[in-house]
Amino acid sequence: MKVSEVMTTDVQVIGCDGSLRQAAEMMKSCDIGSLPVSRDERLVGMLTDRDIVIRAVAEGLGGDCPVSKVMSEDLKFCYADETVEQAANTMSDLGVRRLPVIDRNEKLVGFMSLSNVASADKPAATENLLQGTACPH
Description:
- The chain is of the alpha/beta class.
- Helix content is 37%, strand content 20%.
- The protein has helices at 3-6, 20-30, 49-56, 84-94, 114-119, 123-133; strands spanning 14-15, 34-39, 42-48, 78-79, 98-102, 108-113.
- A three-stranded mixed sheet has the order 1-2-3.
- 26% of the residues are buried.
Protein backbone atom coordinates (compact mmCIF):
# COMPACT_ATOMS: atom_id res chain seq x y z
CA MET A 1 0.00 0.00 0.00
CA LYS A 2 1.32 3.44 -0.96
CA VAL A 3 1.48 6.52 1.25
CA SER A 4 -0.79 8.34 -1.22
CA GLU A 5 -3.58 5.88 -0.41
CA VAL A 6 -3.71 6.66 3.32
CA MET A 7 -2.18 10.13 3.79
CA THR A 8 -4.16 13.16 4.88
CA THR A 9 -4.56 15.51 1.93
CA ASP A 10 -6.33 18.41 3.63
CA VAL A 11 -3.17 20.13 4.87
CA GLN A 12 -3.00 23.69 6.16
CA VAL A 13 0.03 25.57 4.81
CA ILE A 14 1.46 29.00 5.50
CA GLY A 15 3.66 31.01 3.15
CA CYS A 16 7.17 31.86 4.31
CA ASP A 17 6.22 35.55 4.49
CA GLY A 18 3.23 34.84 6.72
CA SER A 19 3.42 36.24 10.24
CA LEU A 20 3.79 34.31 13.47
CA ARG A 21 0.41 35.72 14.52
CA GLN A 22 -1.22 34.29 11.38
CA ALA A 23 0.47 30.95 11.99
CA ALA A 24 -0.67 30.85 15.61
CA GLU A 25 -4.23 31.74 14.58
CA MET A 26 -4.21 28.93 11.98
CA MET A 27 -2.89 26.46 14.55
CA LYS A 28 -5.56 27.50 17.02
CA SER A 29 -8.48 27.36 14.58
CA CYS A 30 -7.38 24.01 13.12
CA ASP A 31 -6.29 22.55 16.50
CA ILE A 32 -2.85 21.62 15.16
CA GLY A 33 0.68 22.06 16.48
CA SER A 34 2.65 22.41 13.27
CA LEU A 35 2.39 24.00 9.86
CA PRO A 36 4.28 23.30 6.67
CA VAL A 37 5.83 26.47 5.24
CA SER A 38 5.80 26.95 1.48
CA ARG A 39 7.25 29.19 -1.19
CA ASP A 40 5.85 28.90 -4.71
CA GLU A 41 4.01 25.67 -3.76
CA ARG A 42 7.26 24.02 -2.61
CA LEU A 43 7.85 22.91 0.94
CA VAL A 44 10.64 25.05 2.44
CA GLY A 45 10.20 24.57 6.17
CA MET A 46 8.10 23.51 9.13
CA LEU A 47 6.84 25.69 11.94
CA THR A 48 5.71 24.23 15.24
CA ASP A 49 4.02 25.77 18.24
CA ARG A 50 7.27 25.05 20.07
CA ASP A 51 9.22 27.06 17.46
CA ILE A 52 6.94 30.02 18.13
CA VAL A 53 7.50 29.78 21.88
CA ILE A 54 11.23 28.96 21.98
CA ARG A 55 12.57 30.75 18.90
CA ALA A 56 10.24 33.74 18.83
CA VAL A 57 8.50 34.61 22.09
CA ALA A 58 11.47 33.70 24.30
CA GLU A 59 13.71 35.82 22.05
CA GLY A 60 11.36 38.81 22.13
CA LEU A 61 10.14 38.58 18.54
CA GLY A 62 6.67 39.95 17.91
CA GLY A 63 3.64 38.50 16.20
CA ASP A 64 4.43 40.37 12.98
CA CYS A 65 7.72 38.49 12.57
CA PRO A 66 7.72 36.34 9.40
CA VAL A 67 7.58 32.60 10.00
CA SER A 68 10.72 32.19 7.86
CA LYS A 69 12.78 33.65 10.74
CA VAL A 70 11.88 30.85 13.17
CA MET A 71 10.85 27.86 11.04
CA SER A 72 12.91 24.70 10.86
CA GLU A 73 14.57 24.37 7.47
CA ASP A 74 16.03 20.90 8.00
CA LEU A 75 13.16 19.14 6.28
CA LYS A 76 12.25 15.52 6.82
CA PHE A 77 9.61 14.06 4.53
CA CYS A 78 8.46 11.01 2.65
CA TYR A 79 7.28 10.57 -0.91
CA ALA A 80 3.69 9.86 -1.89
CA ASP A 81 4.77 6.85 -3.95
CA GLU A 82 6.65 5.16 -1.08
CA THR A 83 5.07 2.24 0.73
CA VAL A 84 3.42 2.75 4.09
CA GLU A 85 6.14 0.52 5.58
CA GLN A 86 8.89 2.76 4.18
CA ALA A 87 7.23 5.88 5.60
CA ALA A 88 6.71 4.19 8.98
CA ASN A 89 10.40 3.22 9.04
CA THR A 90 11.43 6.80 8.26
CA MET A 91 9.11 8.17 10.95
CA SER A 92 10.39 5.63 13.47
CA ASP A 93 14.03 6.38 12.65
CA LEU A 94 13.38 10.11 13.07
CA GLY A 95 11.24 9.62 16.19
CA VAL A 96 8.36 11.66 14.75
CA ARG A 97 4.62 11.04 14.67
CA ARG A 98 3.93 13.22 11.64
CA LEU A 99 5.74 13.68 8.34
CA PRO A 100 5.06 15.88 5.31
CA VAL A 101 4.44 14.00 2.08
CA ILE A 102 5.78 15.38 -1.19
CA ASP A 103 5.60 14.24 -4.78
CA ARG A 104 8.68 13.71 -6.95
CA ASN A 105 8.44 17.37 -8.05
CA GLU A 106 8.89 18.35 -4.38
CA LYS A 107 5.35 19.69 -4.11
CA LEU A 108 3.61 19.15 -0.76
CA VAL A 109 0.71 16.77 -1.35
CA GLY A 110 -0.21 15.57 2.13
CA PHE A 111 0.77 14.56 5.63
CA MET A 112 1.42 11.14 7.09
CA SER A 113 0.70 10.48 10.75
CA LEU A 114 0.61 7.60 13.16
CA SER A 115 -3.14 7.31 12.61
CA ASN A 116 -2.63 7.11 8.82
CA VAL A 117 -0.17 4.25 9.28
CA ALA A 118 -2.59 2.47 11.62
CA SER A 119 -5.44 2.89 9.12
CA ALA A 120 -3.37 1.02 6.49
CA ASP A 121 -3.86 -2.15 8.53
CA LYS A 122 -0.15 -2.94 8.51
CA PRO A 123 0.48 -4.14 12.10
CA ALA A 124 4.25 -4.51 11.67
CA ALA A 125 4.58 -0.95 10.33
CA THR A 126 2.41 0.43 13.13
CA GLU A 127 4.40 -1.49 15.76
CA ASN A 128 7.70 -0.25 14.31
CA LEU A 129 6.48 3.34 14.34
CA LEU A 130 5.24 3.04 17.92
CA GLN A 131 8.61 1.62 18.97
CA GLY A 132 10.38 4.61 17.46
CA THR A 133 8.08 7.31 18.82
CA ALA A 134 6.88 5.99 22.17
CA CYS A 135 10.26 6.24 23.88
CA PRO A 136 11.05 9.39 25.89
CA HIS A 137 13.14 12.04 24.17
